[in-house]
Amino acid sequence: MTNSWTDIKNTDLVIVMGGNAAEAHPCGFKWVTEAKHQRGAKLIVVDPRFTRTASVADYYAPIRPGSDIAFLMGLIRYMIENDKVQWEYVKAFTNASLIVKDEFGWADGLFTGYDEEKRDYDKSSWDYVIGDDGFAVTDPTLQNPRCVWNLLKAHVDVYTPEMVERITGTPKDRFLKIAEMIGECSSPTKTMTSMYALGWTQHSKGAQNIRGMAMLQLILGNIGVRGGGMNALRGHSNIQGLTDIGLMSNLIPGYLNIPTEREADWATYMTSRAFKPLRPGQTSYWQNYPKFMVSFMKSMWGDAAQKDNDWAYHYLPKLDVPSYDILRMYELMDEGRVNLYFCQGFNPLLATPNRDKVTRAFSKLKLLVTMDPLETETARFWENHGAHNDVDTAAIQTEVIQLPSSCFAEDEGALVNSGRWLQWHWKASDMPGEARNDVWIMAQIFLRVRELYRTEGGAFPDPILNLTWDYADPNEPHPEELAREMNGRALSAVYDPTDPTKVVAEPGKQLLNFSQLRDDGSTASGCWIYSGSFNEAGNNMARRDNADPDDTGAYPNWTWSWPLNRRTLYNRASCDLNGKPWDPTRKIIEWDGEKWSGYDVPDISPTAKPGEVMPFIMNQEGVSRLFSRGLMRDGPFPTHMEPFESPVENVFNKRMRGNPVVRVFAKDAADLGTSDEFPFVATSYRLTEHFHYWTKHNVVNAALQPEFFVEISEELAAERGIERGGRVRVWSKRGEVWAVALVTKRIKPMICDGKTVHVVGIPLHWGFVGAARKGWGPNSLTPVLGDANVETPEFKAFLVNIEPAVGEAVS
Amino acid sequence: MTTNIQDSPRTALSNPPVQPGQSNLGQPAVRRSSAGGPVAEQPTPLTEVAKLIDVSKCIGCKACQSACIEWNDTHPEIETNVGVYENPHDLTPEMFTLMRFAEYDNPDNGNFEWLIRKDGCMHCEEPGCLKACPAPGAIVQYTNGIVDFIHENCIGCGYCVSGCPFDIPRISQKTHVAYKCTLCSDRVAVGQGPACAKACPTHAIVFGTKEDMKIHAAARIEDLKSRGYENAGLYDPPGVGGTHVMYVLHHADKPGIYNDLPEDPQISPVVEGWKGPTKTVGLAAIGLAAVGSVVMGLFSRSAVADEDEHQAQEMVDRAAAGLPVDPIPGREQV
Fold first, then answer.
1. CB pairs below 8 Å between A and B: how many?
2. CA-CA distances (angstroms) from residue A561 to A1, A132, A541, A565, A567?
3. Over 90: is that where the pLDDT of A557 sits?
4. Residue A257: burial class (beta carbons within 10 Å; 0-12, 13-18, 19+)
5. Which of A78, A607, B17, B206 is 20 to 30 A from A204 (CA-CA)?
6. Can you tell me the distance from the alpha carbon of B68 to that of A703, in angstroms, rounded to the nearest whole number?
7. What ipTM score was computed for the predicted complex, to two decimals?
């Protein structure tokens, strides 16, 4: 989230699209209710199904799964055509005025530079014209036909309301009504908030869905303001924390990158991380990258990381591929190239696409280790459960070790919520049986592996032998020790850069925050964005002061929010070029002639003059990007792309299937179905009554939603002879499931490109262990494809067929 | 607002007291008791309470059901899905409240609406169950308006089901007594709000004095009217003297669209009219009517064992004759 849950109460308009906040985030949704109740805010829901969020919405529109970009570009077109633009904001705070290279263009659904062989773009034309002064050229009058604004205008021109209806199936009148409601928020005193979740991310172009809305929000001037923002509702408790501390194959904590093979040494690695400002006087905060990186290396390897050995850069693994995401890992496993797989807090047998492939892949492992507080299907993938898990147990030789671990209430630590708040919690209960917390388990493994390296040596023992492990109890580091380590401390005296005689942090002391990080080896910090969470003032994450001066929703002393306890990102953009709030009733910060101050920590240097330093300090331009240069693999503007399995062809280019730069493994490509065989669009989702595959173990949740079902329209039910409550078989190119048919008016057929499109809704939550009835998850049906940029699997739009189940009922 | 637990309840929105408190309910606050059961001579005067359910804020998440199960320590069955969102499928002796989902095509504007209503005991000011109940002291009403079932006095006859215009009580086949929402009388008695209100994430369920809840409802109705729901209103049906569970409805002119919420609930005239020995006759009449017309009535009547029926009749007769009534031996207390 750019903003926070509590900030949503400040909004005038909520759009829930690409998510289902009331069902999947019912507690956070209270702030929507609050905004409606206290401010008279309106709620719009755009979703293939009329959800429980829609049941309390002021306006609802259906949309075909996987067609959101067309809807969003249509909205941008409407705003431009009807002058619903916050002009002052757009001109000053976005890259609207920057000039783009002449070579850049878009035709037939593709941007310039596409290479069909490589399934990739040559992105060299997707960039600004750089002047002789080394800065990007601009035209503040927006007259230049090659400025971003005019290119954007041309890019969205094709998305007329008629085209939106044709692609998305959203009736034109509904689309226009929504556009009109949103257009009102171009006023500096009206804001809209966007709440989205996996309904936008789980697509082969998920990142572009989100960019589409972010661009709309920028055009309306809704980023950085109270009640505005791009608010990603994270799908899992602490999944924000997971990404923050880099639990991904290509990341280092704090959104730093694991080097690639091309970056053999420190100097090479740093050349692409200079982040020189692209406009004069701009902050470009990532210029501090070396400080974050060196401090990370010092935190990992202490004295073994020195300037003269490039901070032990050679200890870091170098990626030979962009990432070892789950899709690639299961492909490797299926090829028999993985021996051992550790599954920590993860139930991939039900959560990774194409369950058949997952089972096949697990069967080729030598050892599978699961660490989970609950019994998972993954740990029992080898066990035959009839139709629910029809495997040949005797043929599977994989050894499985289950390590029971702790639930959140059984240990201590911080959970990071969607609003970036690190909220410390305390242990409420002992773990049952032989369960141990994850830290203890990891420590035991590490200590044993280190001992093996110590005694037996190895190809490269140094990174293991030299890893810093100075905890009071090496067998079980305390959560506070780990938190202090992430915050960082001074290794030797840290000096004030403006006054080298002044010590700002004595050796051994916790650092105040990341402003004290240095690239000379004098500081260590495990995760720079968390620096400030546990400083000499103590554990700020444990703060529980719920005072909220002037009811701004900031709650500045409630726990701690990264970065720097800032509650609203880009909050400098809540003020105009004179530093005055666009909406004085929604002030966050203000320029008093000398400095910035207010209710929140300013997202700008406190003394940066409002007319000079622009608010988007993380960007080299200093402004936000309507045009994202070469930063995304699939285009600098979002362009409509069909899902890989779609009932209709791409209206711009019939030859295009899905996202043209998505990585597709050969076997998975052969497993893609077409609409002749699989005429219906399926989408997957969660239900309020359950949390993923956890709560089916709980008898209360199981009683409230006991059995797997699929949702279809009355029209589809009639067409296929399916009765309400009857059993159906649903199958895709990759597998089949049996379910109860929930026939509903909440799903209606749509007309897309002249064709009737039926949607089949497939909730997750059922498997073959737990208290609820046995069932299947959508992953039995979904394709192995990910987003072009981040490899999030395409769970939200795929093709299936459906028929009444015949013969023996499976239950 | 006063903070005296002895009188005004706290709303579920405010933080309830954390220190142990003296219960303000129980026998001293009983102002009405079934079949001539004991009432307090000078019942503790308490402010009338109410739970307000704003269906326009309800997201159907079933947190209320979950909280109800947890607080009352019930164990609803893990049933099947029969093609709807309601689970369990109906109120049961183990499920005192239930989200009911209705799919509604609004003929006035062509919009589709998904109307979700939390069903459960309405705590009528004039409770049909209490009036129909033949077992002395099995159903009581406290001076704050809560209608409570006193299980040790219940004979499981099911007449409360027949007497209820909202079809709420359910008879357990295991314990042979009637169950329904108590409005968390055990929580309210010590200054807490009902568990469902505490758990409701959107504050669709709020609790407080009936007067405060009406004021709160008025503001909600104004908001709904501003959003185009011209017929938004409060459901506090006069036919049962008003209720201590009220609804804010977007379509108060059509309560029936919310899964058959009665338009104008009334206590059966047979129940209303009887006095003393005529009660037995009246009960028989209701029983017959139930068999003929109300499905749930049929269910609940058939759920009563013959022996219980016999004992119940005996107790009714004894009560009618002014003789003391012993609880049925061996009946478990819940």
1. 120
2. 11, 41, 8, 4, 6
3. yes
4. middle
5. A78
6. 13
7. 0.95
In a domain, B2, yes or no: no
Query: Which residues of chain B are within 8 Å of residue A723 when distances are taken between CB atoms?
Result: 83
Q: Say if residues A111 and A639 touch (Cβ distance below 8 Å).
A: yes
As a whole number, the mean pLDDT across chain B is 84
Alpha helices by DSSP H, listed for B63-209, are 63-72, 128-132, 159-163, 185-188, 195-199
pLDDT digits (tens, 9 = 90+) for A391-445: 999 999 999 999 999 998 999 999 999 999 999 999 999 999 999 999 999 999 9
Distances (CA, A) of B267 to A29, A275, B167: 39, 77, 12
| pTM to 2 decimal places | 0.94
Of A530 and B331, the one with more pLDDT:
A530
Q: CATH number of the domain that B303 lies in? A: 3.30.70.20
Inter-chain touch B114–A55, beta carbons under 8 Å? yes
Q: Where are the alpha helices (DSSP H) in A302-415?
A: 326-334, 348-351, 355-363
Q: Enumerate the domain spans of chain A.
A: 5-235, 666-804
**d(Cα B181, Cα B64) in Å, to the nearest integer?**
12
CB contact under 8 A, B81 and A33: no
Measured between CA atoms, the residue of chain A closest to residue B74 is A700
Tens digit of each residue's pLDDT (9 = 90 or more) over A679-712: 999 999 999 999 999 999 999 999 999 999 999 9
pLDDT in tens, A16-33: 999 999 999 999 999 999
Assess whether the previous peptide bond of B88 is cis (omega < 30° from 0): yes
Domain that holds residue B210: 20-334
For chain B, the residues whose C-beta falls within 8 A of a C-beta of chain A are 56-63, 65-66, 69-70, 75-85, 87-88, 95, 103, 105, 112-116, 201-204, 220, 223, 226-227
Q: Using one digit for the tens of pLDDT, what is the confidence trace for A478-501?
A: 999 999 999 999 999 999 999 999
* Alpha carbons A136 and A621: distance in angstroms, whole number: 8
Q: Are A73 and A159 in contact (CB under 8 A)?
A: yes
- Contact between A725 and B82 using a beta-carbon 8 Å cutoff: yes
Question: Taking Cα atoms as reference points, which of A497, A477, A486, A471 lies closest to residue A535?
Answer: A486
Q: Classify domain A5-235 by CATH architecture.
A: 3-Layer(aba) Sandwich (3.40)
Pair A2, A231: CB distance under 8 Å: yes
Q: Do A725 and B84 touch (CB under 8 A)?
A: yes
Question: A763 preceded by cis ω (within 30°)?
Answer: no
Over chain A, what is the mean pLDDT? 97
pLDDT at B291 over 50: no
Class of domain A666-804: mainly beta
- Would you state the pLDDT for residue B304? 44
Number of domain units in chain B: 1
For residue A420, how many other CB atoms are within 10 A of its CB?
Answer: 23
CB A799 within 8 A of CB A673: yes
Neighbours of A444 (CB within 10 A): 15
DSSP state of B63: H
